[in-house]
Amino acid sequence: MSLLEFTNLSVEFETLNGGFRAVDNVSLTVDPGEVVAIVGESGSGKSVSMLAVMGLLPWTAKVTADRLTFQGRDMLSMRPKEKRKIIGKDISMIFQEPTTSLNPCFTVGYQIIETLKKHTDLSRAERKNRAIELLRLVGIPAPERRVTAFPHQLSGGMNQRVMIAMAIACDPKLLIADEPTTALDVTIQAQILELLIKIKEENDMGLVLITHDMGVVAETADRVIVQYAGQQVEQQDVKGLFRDPHHPYTAALLAALPERATGDQLPSIPGVVPGQFDRPAGCLFSPRCSFVFDRCHKEQPTQAGKELGCALCHTPLVAGKPQNEAA
Amino acid sequence: MLRLILNKIGLLIPTFIGVTIISFLFIRLLPGDPVLLLAGERGITGDRYADLMHQFGFDQPLWRQYLDYLVGILHGDLGTSISTRRPVISEFFTLFPATMELSLCAIFFAVVVGLPAGVIAALYRGKTPDHAVMTTALVGYSMPIFWWGLLLIILFSGILGWTPVSGRISLLYYFPSVTGFMLIDSLLSGQAGAFESAVSHLILPTIVLGTIPLAVIARQTRSAMLEVLDEDYVRTARAKGLAPFRVIGLHALRNALIPVITTIGLQIGVLFAGAILTETIFSWPGIGKWMIDSIFRRDYPAVQGGLLLIAIIVMLVNLLVDVTYGLINPKIRHTR
Ligand SMILES: Nc1ncnc2c1ncn2[C@@H]1O[C@H](COP(=O)(O)OP(=O)(O)O)[C@@H](O)[C@H]1O
Ligand code: SF4
Ligand SMILES: [Mg+2]
Fold this sequence. Notes:
The complex is a heterodimer.
Chain A: E1 4-15, E2 18-30, E3 35-39, H1 46-54, E4 61-64, E5 67-70, E6 73-74, H2 80-86, E7 91-94, H3 98-101, H4 108-119, H5 124-137, H6 143-146, H7 156-167, E8 174-178, H8 186-203, E9 206-211, H9 214-220, E10 223-228, E11 231-237, H10 238-243, H11 248-255, H12 294-298, E12 317-318, E13 321-322
Parallel strand pairs in A: 3-9, 3-10, 7-8, 8-9
Antiparallel strand pairs in A: 1-2, 1-4, 1-5, 5-6, 10-11, 12-13
Chain B: H1 2-29, H2 34-39, H3 46-56, H4 62-74, H5 88-123, H6 128-142, H7 145-159, H8 182-189, H9 194-229, H10 232-239, H11 244-281, H12 287-296, H13 300-328, H14 330-333
Helix pairs in contact in B: 1-13, 5-6, 5-9, 5-11, 6-9, 7-9, 7-11, 8-9, 9-11, 10-11, 11-12, 11-13, 12-13
Bound molecules: adenosine-5'-diphosphate, iron/sulfur cluster and magnesium ion.
The site of iron/sulfur cluster has 12 residues of chain A, from loops.
GO cellular component, one term (chain A): plasma membrane
Protein name (chain A): Dipeptide transport system ATP-binding protein
Keywords (chain A): ATP-binding, Cell membrane, Membrane, Nucleotide-binding, Transport
């Protein structure tokens, strides 16, 4: 049984200017011990889709899905109270900005212990010891001292380690890491990723890694989901994706990859992800696609088969060449 | 932290000097003088007048009088009240507990009602509870104290007959003052019904005096909460599976309290101003009523001494607030 499974998850925000679909029919499965990467530029709905799974979106968000299960249990019909027994224990999440994600008014120790108190039967002394042990586990030096530190007394990298310690406190089955290294120095980034992978291996944990960095994907992921403007445009295992991307957007992301060597972090595809007000008709990627043709402006593409990475494109690429162009 | 406190105290010294000047000049700028008012309708002969003015030292040049006042302060002597012939300091501290009791009750009332109201308004932002709280706060804030006090008296004392109109306790009860706080002394006295009487006398003045701070606290809490609720760490708290009550009441509120504490501190000064009016309306035998009476009598030593003591108390409270602020905000606590 897969750990997390959802099909056709959509999130629509109620805004002053009407509804805005930030996530549109996204599907995903994660198995124990598997690393699934979700990639896409900023604004693709990566965070929103995972926050929807966690139930952490504001009330303006309407979440729908055909199916959303965790370990076979239906999360859609689950009562909030039941859900809170899973959230933070069996599924946990870490965020992009470690420093603002920790409460400035409480010591890091307190914030870890709080999770333990909520989800375990450990005694007061045991919780404290476990917190120190967790800090040691995530590579924080002198954890006995750091346990009483406030977040502002630690560096960003250290705070992210604290976040990880907090997230793995109750041995979760699934960890969702939302751009866990984006806010950190390059040298620290690698360390944090290594730590996440190590924890995953040791606990046979499922890991959903949200990132916009193809380099990170190549190093860590088993499977990759590419998201664009809220839609899932491609899904493949990592080898296949790098060898033969089927969606023009994936191809463009990969083509932009070598430029990272010049120090430019973002894949340089001209243009930006369309937001609420500039969504084109037809294919959402059409304004930026180098394979665009007439039909793309009129008709929304449908998902191709598994052999073509479920590419959301009228003419999925094979070996860099558009297919069924005749159509 | 200690450094922080010392810094604050250093800043208080010029304020203190300013207050001595203002309190000294304020009462002397009003037309009339204590001797004339002491004489009242009957009038006074020129000789007797000059004699009394000399006796009180009011015939001296202003700078001389001010200097005497300062020297007195340095010796811890604020002079003697002209109307009661008692030292200003002992007069003040006999009456002060009454004002303090009223002020504490008022601020307690304001916090206990204003804080939750602000939190609820923030949680229901833009919806009915929010509008209800904000409108009530606006009305409460703009309500003139005098008018508001009379309104409550008419309703609760007049029409409904639920509460007494004036004083701190019914004249039926008499017991020695131990702490100066009527709520405590009435309990200590062991007299049946005394405590209830004290409480019923306190209710209306508390509401009247607490209304403006309540409105300010509710508004400040709301805006602080709105800011904090969007913070990443609130999301983190929810991601731990914590119950909403804990997320809001602990993680969010604890941060929102930082600016609110400052607001509460600033309200103390406003409270003393309000106390003057409230005590007058309810014949509450406290500092406020005493100050008003002294001003009408042009009781120079009482007014300048009373104002100075009030200023010192406000400054002390603000210092206390600063310290609390430091304690509650770890970021400040750790700066040396
Ligand atoms: N609370 C919200 N209300 C309205 N729109 C939102 C909200 N949160 C996110 N969005 C919108 O949803 C889209 C996807 O956001 P997000 O999931 O954060 O992107 P990503 O994580 O891929 O960078 C963005 O266009 C963003 O503006
Ligand atoms: S449908 Fe057309 S515009 Fe969209 S990705 Fe495919 S080729 Fe490009
Ligand atoms: Mg994001």
